[in-house]
């Protein structure tokens, strides 16, 4: 009898197990069907991105991918069809949806659901489509899908746009694409009216007698709250570590540094993206408070700051500190360290050329190591003092030539970031245009040439290769205009000269030009001993009508005598 009863119980238990298994399979299948309706990782994903015609921005987009921290990340790259601003220009890629307002469900708002880090434009030419130095800007825009009860339609679109700030003229068109309805609904728009189901017969209930076993039901737990966000670090050197500091709202002195980790963590900071364009994007997740306990849902916490360690130095986030965040919540931070990590290299080689018998350019050494020859840039000329007040003062050479050239290398970091240090090349500061004057009194300039080897288009007219020939032999040809002075300049430029058949004037080392006609006192067509005797007779005298006062300072001194001696043999043209 006992054996028969056990067999009945065994048969009934098997039946119950099979029934439970069928129910479990149904639950799993049903759950998978629900997840599939929100899962764009299907073949339809290829067709989800619909680009919008945009006259200002050329963009390439990659299909969104899932991540552990964010629902998805949209990646891509872009360039601008017109020149971006050269300073203080920014842009970022945003994703937004039309949603019901959280505060008022009857109000519809366009809400940003994710965005890339804002990028600062440091070199406009590299972002201009069609530029010889184009380097398209990479971006990654993480985003989360809002709760379905906030959607305004069964399968909404997600808008993708590029927002910009700074001195854009004009601002570029924002809309670039949409994630189509089939991104959220790859199997089509769900039918709001459920299909009628066939009735199933009610199963016959067989009473079972058994001894109940006491069991404690498994409690349903909600996920622990976290504070998440991004830390954008702008630097020319990758940080060795990045941390974020969380403090207690009630006790501001009780804080904890969330550690830097090698990858995604529930309580850590990790590198999420490195675009290679002087920017590093980190994600963070905070799940523990200053005491090591789990964060409490709905409680206020304080994000004190974020800090990055770069080349052994700490750099702290800018903007609002001690920001209150309610768990779960999100907050983004930015760290700027370009000033201390980015060098500003400048390299320029100036040359003096002549043409050989075949018409080829060769450097000449006729001006080497002489105080009469050389060059000076516009800032150097501005700073030179015209002691005598001579109206013909044109400056004086500051740098002599060696083997027909002058090689200048500089790091403008100090000048760029310290207003008390003068900028050595050009009065317009960083990324300005300068000119350089050639001092060669017995040469005429018949042409100028320039080649830019670095990433910057630093030759005249912002070109990489430039050449100009002059029809006349004016002294103004000796001024080389339009040389770009900025970080990354690497140019070789020079003057093409012809030696004059005879001198027509004399240039002093102080930059004073005296025509030979003014030194030919007896008007015999040459500067000779007869003219020198006049200077000897007046040497040491002062007055307003002295014949040998060649530098016009109302006295005849050693400078006047030196000009006369150096000009002996000069022919008046």
TrEMBL record:
SUPFAM superfamilies (UniProt xref): Type I dockerin domain
InterPro entries the UniProt entry points to: Dockerin_dom_sf, EF_Hand_1_Ca_BS, EF_hand_dom
Ranges where the EF-hand domain occurs: 507-542
Coiled coil: none
GO biological process assignments: polysaccharide catabolic process
GO molecular function annotation: calcium ion binding
Source domain of life: Bacteria
Protein name: EF-hand domain-containing protein
């Amino acid at each position: 009898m006992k054996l028969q009863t056990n067999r009945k119980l065994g048969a009934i238990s098997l039946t119950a197990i099979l029934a439970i298994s069928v129910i479990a399979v149904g639950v799993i299948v049903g759950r998978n069907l629900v997840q599939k309706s929100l899962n764009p990782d299907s073949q339809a994903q290829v067709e989800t991105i619909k680009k919008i015609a945009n006259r200002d921005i050329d963009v390439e987009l990659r299909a969104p991918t899932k991540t552990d921290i964010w629902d998805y990340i949209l990646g891509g790259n872009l360039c601008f069809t017109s020149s971006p601003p050269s300073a203080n220009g920014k842009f970022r890629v945003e994703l937004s949806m039309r949603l019901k307002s959280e505060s008022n469900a009857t109000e519809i708002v366009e809400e940003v659901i994710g965005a890339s880090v804002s990028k600062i434009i440091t070199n406009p030419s590299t972002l201009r489509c069609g530029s010889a130095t184009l380097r398209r800007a990479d971006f990654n825009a993480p985003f989360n899908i809002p709760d379905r009860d906030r959607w305004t339609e069964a399968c909404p679109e997600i808008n993708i746009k590029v927002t910009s700030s700074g001195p854009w003229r004009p601002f570029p068109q924002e809309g670039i694409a949409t994630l189509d309805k089939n991104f959220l609904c790859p199997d089509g728009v769900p039918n709001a009216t459920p299909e009628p189901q066939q009735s199933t017969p009610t199963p016959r209930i067989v009473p079972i007698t058994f001894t109940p076993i006491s069991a404690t039901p498994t409690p349903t737990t909600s996920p622990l709250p976290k504070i998440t966000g991004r830390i954008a670090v702008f630097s020319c050197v990758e940080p060795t570590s990045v941390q974020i500091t969380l403090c207690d709202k009630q006790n501001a002195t009780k804080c904890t540094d969330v550690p830097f980790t090698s990858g995604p963590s529930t309580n850590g900071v990790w590198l999420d993206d490195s675009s290679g364009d002087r920017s590093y994007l980190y994600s963070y997740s905070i799940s523990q408070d200053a005491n090591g306990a789990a964060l409490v849902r709905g409680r206020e916490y304080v994000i004190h700051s974020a800090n990055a360690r770069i080349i052994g130095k700490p750099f702290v986030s800018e903007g609002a500190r001690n920001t209150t965040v309610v768990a779960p919540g999100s907050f983004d931070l930015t760290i700027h360290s370009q000033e201390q990590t980015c060098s500003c290299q400048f390299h320029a080689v100036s040359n003096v050329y002549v043409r050989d018998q075949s018409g080829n350019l060769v450097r000449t050494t006729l001006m080497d190591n002489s105080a009469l020859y050389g060059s000076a840039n516009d800032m150097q000329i501005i700073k030179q003092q015209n002691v005598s007040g001579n109206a013909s003062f044109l400056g004086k050479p500051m740098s002599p030539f060696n083997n027909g050239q002058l090689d200048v290398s500089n790091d403008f970091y100090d000048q760029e970031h310290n207003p008390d240090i003068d900028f050595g090349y050009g009065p317009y500061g960083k990324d300005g245009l300068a000119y350089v004057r050639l001092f060669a009194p017995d040469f005429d300039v018949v042409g100028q040439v320039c080649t830019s080897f670095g990433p910057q288009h630093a030759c005249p007219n912002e070109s990489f290769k430039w050449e100009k020939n002059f029809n006349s032999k004016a002294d103004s040809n000796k001024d080389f205009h339009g040389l770009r002075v900025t970080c990354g300049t690497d140019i070789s430029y020079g003057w093409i000269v012809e030696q004059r058949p005879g001198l027509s004037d004399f240039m002093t080392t102080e930059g004073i030009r005296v025509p030979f006609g003014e030194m030919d006192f007896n008007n015999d067509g040459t500067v000779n001993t007869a003219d020198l005797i006049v200077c000897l007779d007046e040497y040491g005298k002062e007055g307003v009508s002295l014949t040998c006062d060649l530098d016009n300072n109302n006295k005849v001194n050693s400078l006047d005598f030196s000009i006369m001696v150096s000009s002996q043999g000069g022919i008046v043209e």
